[in-house]
Amino acid sequence: MNAVALLAVLALIVGVAFWTHRRIRGRVGSDDRQSALIRLIVLGLLLASSILVTVGVGGLLERLFGLGSTLVRRGASDLARDLAFVVVGGPAATLLWSSLTSRLRSSTTERRSMLWGLYLGTALTLSLVVAAVHAIALLADLIGPDPADLARNGAGLIAWGSFWLWHRRIWAEPDLKPGTLPNLPILLGSAFGLVVGATGVGLALGSLLGDAYGALGGTVIAERGSTLDDGVAAAAVGAAIWVWHWWLHGRHLDPRGGWLLHTLGLGVMGGLVTALTAVGSVVFALLTWWFAPPRGVTAATHFDTIPGAVTALVVGGGVWAYHRAVVRDPSRTDVTEPDRAARYLQAGIGLAAAAGGLGVVVASIFQSLAGPVATVGGATETLLAGITALGVGGPLWALTWRDLQRAAAADPATELTGTWRRVYLVVLFGVAGIAALITLLVIAFRLFEAVLEGTSMAAFLDSSSTALGILFASGTVAGYHLVVWRSDRASGFAPRRRLGTVHLVTGADDTDLAAAVDAATDVKVVRWLAADTVEVPRSELAEALTTIDAERVLVLPAGDDRVRIVPYRPA
Amino acid sequence: MRTTRIAWWLGAGVAVLLVVAAVLATRPPRSYDPSTPEGTVQIFLQALLDGDRERARELLAPDLDERCVDDVATGESVRITLVSSEVEDDVATVEVRIVRSGGDPPFGGYEYSQDASYRLERTDTGWIITSAEWPFPCFERIPPP
Fold it and tell me: Which of B85, B114, B86, B88 lies closest to B99, judged by CA?
């Protein structure tokens, strides 16, 4: 435990140092670089010492809780270690924290630094994960038949839970809240809660359905233990984490950047891929049972994947449906950007499955053409796997793509010039290009091998069948989308440059104006405060700049060979 | 729209491919003449894959190990293709490529292939296998001096 913790701390410090080094290299001015370095060292030491204290306190609590139940104990090196961690780490953390907190309260720059946001994100997520692991183990022991290891997991939960609560209070305090990456802990916590909760529900449901299936089909000969307790515990802990992070905070955040990555990458894509895989495995089991029944296998054994598949379908489908509803803003009648992104993502997932299936079908044709001398299972099973992927991915792609094309026909000016459509097409061409390059390489290698070694045409066809299948499928996909790309361009709607960021420079911090711009334009607003303006002739600009006491200035034309200097700072 | 029309054509093309693949996949493997070396190897391998040890045993030289016809039915899919066949007087060498696949299809399968060669000798009743590299390497016993 201590070796792992120390290694983790070391890796973290090295990682943060490397990242900061890259980050500050581009900036000018030694002050910036120096303060970033100081910040890095202070925050790295603070993280390390607070982890040490937490590990130490956890160990001491475990010893305290276990007093009544410990039978034999020999040696005191672990007690010595825990005491050392607390005695050295405690004062170090207190000292660092008191020096840091005054700087944070007094300086906006300090609060705005990327490192401070990263520190809180790392500390909160790390402690959340460790506390959750202890909480799940504790809960599973309490509801399960095994005797509970209350001392170990209770101590861990209290120590790491306190670590989390303390950082959480810092995060929520307006004077200390990071200006950069403020929502990193919220989004990471949401993702962690979702994964743990969904896995827990899956384990519990899968265990129940599996038992029911075993009882019905009589496939279980002997068994011991169950994943039900673990599943229920993980579901409860994951749900609590998710509700706090996502339901109370995350879902109200700005739907851009990390929010989009979470809802689309994890919610929509993770859920949909899980559900599709589940449907695929059921379809495949049915197809093989019908067309290529395996020898000597009873129906109950052949279909024993069904409880797992139903579980995955329910959990994955639920996760998908929820996040699909989240990106569809009900207060707006038009299609929002996150919604549009989700549709292209779904079309892409369906297309990937369908193209894979098509590749397998074509590969099986080449394998049959090669004329094998002997087979078992072989061609039929491969073909059925291909048909399954085609049958699952094809309809998903066709339906999603039909809707997208209809939307494009109805409002070409918005749809055809949208970012997500272009990203979708470019990613498709990229993937198809890579696939084509690799498969051509394989085919050429096999061909040369066959010619130089004088092997049969059949052996060449067979060994390059997979490559030929993938090449055919990626060629078909790329060909179709090339037509789409061309017809998009021929429509004459050139992509217009979109507003990315609005820099709002005002005399006093005008949050109302910022909110109004934000609501109307759907773009990021950066607020700045301008100080008193100086107007000088052009020729005196260089000299005037040296006298200005500000980190940033705007120089604007003021007519008649004069310029206006506007010093400004972050609001 | 033109793209919709193309999508329909592509769908029709995929359907045709499916039919072709289904027809080809259900076709029995091509039969080689049983009096040739490749025909002998084909019967031997298909017998092994079908679990018919007796039939496979008949095609082996009598002094070859029992292990040469060990069961290969492991639940994997196996596909064997002819790579080459050479005959020199009364001795022949047949090389095949064995592709085994299994795992958890449709999304988590594996596939790997290996080449194996068989040595055959002509007898009065036809060709017999005197050494095999698959499913287990087994070779003619050299008689003690």
Answer: B114
Contact flag B109-A294 (C-beta cutoff 8 Å): no
Residue contact B18–A378, C-beta within 8 A: no
- Same domain flag for A159 and A23: yes
Are the C-beta atoms of B130 and B53 separated by less than 8 Å?
Answer: no
**Tokens at A364, concatenated:** 């099986």
What's the 3-state SS for A100-154? HHHHHHHCHHHHHCHHHHHHHHHHHHHHHHHHHHHHHHHHHHHHCCCCCCHHHHH
Last residue of a domain, one of A182, A199, A216: A182
Note the pLDDT tens digit of each residue in A479-501.
999 999 998 888 877 666 667 78
Residues of chain B with Cβ-Cβ distance to A480 below 8 Å are 3, 6-7, 10
* Alpha helices, DSSP H, located in A26-66: 30-65
pTM exceeds 0.95: no
Beta strand A374-376 with B77-88: parallel, antiparallel or unpaired? antiparallel
**Chain A contact for B15, CB < 8 A?**
no
A388, B20: Cβ pair inside 8 Å? no
Within 8 A by CB and 6+ apart from A360, the residues are A382, A383, A385, A386, A389, A469
CA neighbor of A361 nearest in space, from A388, A397, A393: A388
The band of A423, judged by pLDDT with boundaries at 50, 70 and 90, is very high
Residue A197 maps to a domain: no
| Interface pTM, i.e. ipTM | 0.73
CA distance linking residue A521 with residue A515, whole number of Å = 10
Domain boundary among the residues A117, A150, A182 is at A182
For A376, the closest of B21, B25, B49 (CB atoms) is: B49
In the predicted model, what is the mean pLDDT of residues A459-478?
92
Q: Distance from A16 to chain B by nearest Cα, in Å?
A: 37
Distances in whole angstroms, Cα of residue A396 to Cα of each of A237, A352, A418: 34, 11, 22
Residues, chain A: 571
Domain range annotation of chain B: 1-29, 31-132
User: Which of B3, B29, B75 lies at the smallest CB-CB distance from A372?
Assistant: B29
- Closest residue of B to A456, CA-based? B83
What are the backbone dihedrals phi and psi of residue B54, each rounded to the nearest 5 degrees, phi first?
A: -60, -50
**B5 lies within 8 A of chain A by CB:** no
- Is residue A337 a contact partner of residue A414, using CB atoms and an 8 Å limit? no
Q: Residue A224: is it exposed, middle or buried by C-beta count within 10 angstroms (0-12/13-18/19+)?
A: exposed
Q: What is the CA radius of gyration of chain B?
A: 20
Is some CB atom of chain B closer than 8 A to the CB atom of A349?
no
User: Does A433 reach chain B within 8 Å, measured CB to CB?
Assistant: no
- Relative to beta strand A524-530, strand A501-506 is parallel
Across the interface, do B82 and A459 touch by the CB < 8 Å criterion?
yes
Q: Which of B101, B105, B83 is nearest to A459 (CA)?
A: B83
Burial of A369 per CB tally in 10 Å (0-12, 13-18, 19+): middle
Contact B84 A389 (CB under 8 A): no
Q: Provide the CATH topology of domain B31-132.
A: Nuclear Transport Factor 2; Chain: A, (3.10.450)
Q: How many Cα atoms within 13 Å fall on the side-chain side of residue A229?
A: 15
pLDDT at A25 over 50: no
Q: CA-to-CA distance for A194 and A242, rounded, in angstroms?
A: 6
Segment A429-461, tens digit of pLDDT: 999 999 999 999 999 998 998 888 888 888 888
